[in-house]
Amino acid sequence: MTPTPSPVPVLDANVTTIDPYWAALLPFLIPVLVAVIGSSFLAQIIINVFKNKTTRRQNRRDDATFALEELKRYRKLVIRYGNVEDPEPVDANRDTRIAIQGSNLSVAGAQTRIKGIDVAIEAYLRVGDAFAAQDEFVSAEDEKAKFREVLRLLAIKREKQS
């Protein structure tokens, strides 16, 4: 009686070959296994790339939103101090608060990585500081124009990230 090949390859210490049944299936099994593993790996890469792109877009949008909030806070201070009647010529509290908020605005703007935002913010900070100190050479229209320039850059970037 001849033994039938076992469905599971059995190796013992004296046998160094694979069962012919399994040897015949290997040319078909290996490409299938490689295809399944490769497609799983490729699918995982595609999913990670999409997740990273989505996360990056959301982070950029959050950065632009944060910069808009800092711009709003800075402008609120500038308008408040710029509209004071009979201001003190030297007001350390005013200058400190405006300097801190201006610094926060500069940092928030830099985090957005918007081309030209640093120049626009710097120009607005100069005009805003002068307006808050009630410099006679800086008008409310000058302050408003610089504010709108920064606002436009931030709003455009934020909308592109939506």
Structural overview:
The protein has 162 residues and is an all-alpha fold. It has a domain of 98 residues. The chain is 75% helix and 0% strand. The chain contains 4 helices and no strands. α2 runs antiparallel to α3 and α3 packs antiparallel against α4. The mean pLDDT is 85.
Q: Which percent range fits the helix content?
A: over 70%
**Span between termini:** 75 Å
What portion of the residues fall into strands of 2 or more residues?
under 5%
What summary fits the major beta sheet?
none
- The outline comes out as rod-shaped
Notable features of this structure?
mainly alpha; 75% helix; 0% strand
Topology:
Blueprint: H1 20-82, H2 92-112, H3 117-132, H4 140-160
Helix pairs in contact: 1-2, 1-3, 1-4, 2-3, 3-4
Short description:
This protein is mainly alpha-helical and 162 residues long. The chain has helices spanning 20-82, 92-112, 117-132, 140-160. The protein has a domain at 63-160.
